Please model this.
Amino acid sequence: MQIIIVGCGKVGYTLVEQLSGEEHNLVVIDEKEDRVASITDNLDAMGIVGNGVSYQTLQEAGIAQADLLIAVTGSDEQNLLCCVIAKKAGNCKTIARVRNPIYNSELEFLRKELGLAMIINPEMTCANEIARIFQFPSAMKIDTFSKGRIELLHFRVTKECLLNNYQLLHIRTALKCDVLVCTVVRREQVFIPRGDFVFQAGDVVSVVSSPAQANEFFRKIGINIGRVRTVMIVGGGKIAYYLTRRLLAAGIETKIIEQDRERCEQLSSLLPKATVICGDGTDQSLLLEEGLEQVQGFAALTGLDEENILLSLYAKKISPRTKVVTKVNRISFNSVLSDLKLDSITYPRLMTADSIIKYARSMNESLNSNVENLYKLEEGKVEALEFYIKEENRVTGIPLQNMHIKKNILICCINRGGRIIIPGGQDMLAPGDFAVVVTMNTARLHDIKDIME
Amino acid sequence: MNFSIVRFILGWILKFESVFLLLPALVGLFYGEQRASGSYLISAALCLLVGFLVSFKPPVSRQLYMREGFACVALGWLVMSIFGAVPFVLCGDIPSCTDALFETVSGFTTTGASILTDVEALTHASLFWRSFTHWVGGMGVFVFIMAILPLMGGSTMNLMRAESPGPSVGKLVPRVMDTAKILYGIYLGITLLQSILLCICGLDLFESLTTTFGTVGTGGFGIYNSSIGGFSPVVQNVITVFMILSGINYMAYFYLLRREPRKIFAIEEVRWYLAVILASALVICANIRPLYGTLGEALRHSFFQVGSIITTTGYSTADFDAWPMLSKTILVLLMFCGACAGSTGGGIKVSRFVILFKTIGRELSTMIHPRLVRKIKMDGHSVPQEVVRSTHVYISVYFILLLASMLLISVDGHNFTTNFTAVAATLNNIGPGLDLVGPAQNFALYSAFSKYVLIFDMLAGRLELFPMLILLLPSCWKKY
Model:
């Protein structure tokens, strides 16, 4: 596909990085020369220096042949305008990033009236993910499929946990839990484990199940932390706003610490139920005064990644039982971060890219299944996808054990009309199913049929 | 520096070269030259063997930064030339190793400067290989590899940038691989067109192919002692047209393919290039009119020679060393001018001169209006200061290298004109110079030392100076 990306910031760069691995032809546009150069020097894309709203620049980028335009500049208005002009100039689908909470309630209206294919709000997606983690604190990270009916949960095996030195096949036989282990990360190596696999403390495991089953599973293996009822947030940016709104709606008491007086007043008027504290979040005495030792959930959401990491480590030290979430936006020292044993890290930049790649893959309409959801896991080494199977094809109606599935691909869950099935060898896929597939083949799956040899 | 990736890529270059070497072996078989054919086969096998040994182990890291890109290209060309010289020595056409290397480097860098006194004595296989190296070197071997192998991700742009001529290298289409394919597609198209036309004009297949390789690669090796002079006027005119076409920025052909011919003349460089050709050819024509019988003949010779020199091909139809001083001086100046950026030609490139003259204009205006702010513009876009700066550095380095080489080869004791034009002709990848290295002469008179200096100049000129100079920098060879 021909894809034009307007805006070469963090998200723009990540998008090019991920989309160029998917055999697309990419053109990037930015007004800053050095930003364009940073992409064209390192990645396989063509760069154009200019304003993405200008018709002439878009023409130069080949808008006439483009299939998709993604506007991710810093300004919401510029993104929207760019999409509208692109739509008129060529016949492409458009995706805009709109982040300002003012537009939040109008996103659907804007999308329809301006003829956009999709509006993404990474801050809101990120806030939703953090809220999910606080509501289910046993997991490090939760990805949802089928509108929340299926969850992919990541957790770390601790020394006290039952799974330490436990063999995988006993999970279903001895524990009688209907969950499926998808991937294990051990010493930066990712693999899909077999039945004779033995867990060790320190492994990061991901399992698929329905929310109710997951609860039981975590209770049985003994890493159930219990619900979080109070949350402290440091940094009052957009994510903090969306997160607080979600948490308050779920009845969780929320406290925001923000340095800027004006922003505090803004937040307080937007979120009257939240406690807004004006002060420096890196001030230890302030944190202790506001009850860091007693709080059950802590989110470091300041604009500085380093500050977020330090704050999280401090919070973890002061009260080890606290569920800590760290926002990391810019820096990419993943291998170092995973050594720090932080509870949960969220990367807003990657989340945006995930949802756009999902859209790009499902754009191919001739296929007989749709990519409903896509998550890149473990630094992009693993992908979890959800397909909707539209019609009969060569994967339906065959027992899974008779199917010749490629190596390192796992069909881990089926949603058949709301019933969640963790499939065994006898189960079959049928039209109308939603199937969750985990793959380590970075060869891209566009269609459910791609899993076959 | 990441040595493992450099080693790996060099291995691949040798594998490709072994395939290239099979072609002259076939030509040799066809003409019944068993010894020549055998030596090309042996060389191909040698290349393949070494290539496999070197690239057998996959690289430790596939990271290819600018530094590795430059090193790969510079070493790649060196290795390619060394292995390309093997068959010349093996089959006895050029017994001396230095001479064989000179001839091969001259071929790959599309210079066309020869050390042979009697070209016609060579075997057909060697004649074919000599011309074929022009074709391979013209568009560049890395561009060829990129068009075929999906070697690695976006960082291959660093390879392409190090090999392609011009102040700023861009892509035609978003993907490096597709860009390389389009470039080679156009190149192949022009090659086919010219060889068919030459066949129609009465040349046999061998003559037509070798002449075409020399023309579209802007090389200049002929298969006769008289270069192109022995061919009919029609053939000469066809070659003139194709030489000039090969010197045009390939972007122009891309626009043509996309059916946007109007954009071709919007490229400022192409307009200047054509204007310079027209003006110099007319002046030379007026100047040499008394030497030739008819105006048509004078026009033919002047256009041929101007096209041959400005595109840095180096074919000749007449001994221009015997022309009047004005014509000779214009030709020497054209040597430095060179062809368009993004073409197969060498020299400093027209676009660099356009940028240079525009900055000179700006500098002069700043003297009158000290607070003047003016951006240098090309094709309606402002040229980044970075490019302007590197253009100036490039031209300065060019002349420093020119003078330094002249000093080095002056130990041989030849006269100034000979030395000056010998360096100019090799650094600009043209071929013949004036006086003792004129179109009717050759480079055999130089000592081995001077030949190595000129070999360096040819490689530096083809690879746009910096890759070769970076090899001389000690910090390039450090591991960190």
Remarks:
- The radius of gyration of chain B is 22 Å.
- The interface with chain A takes residues 66, 153-158, 170-171, 173-176, 178, 381, 384 of chain B (CB under 8 Å).
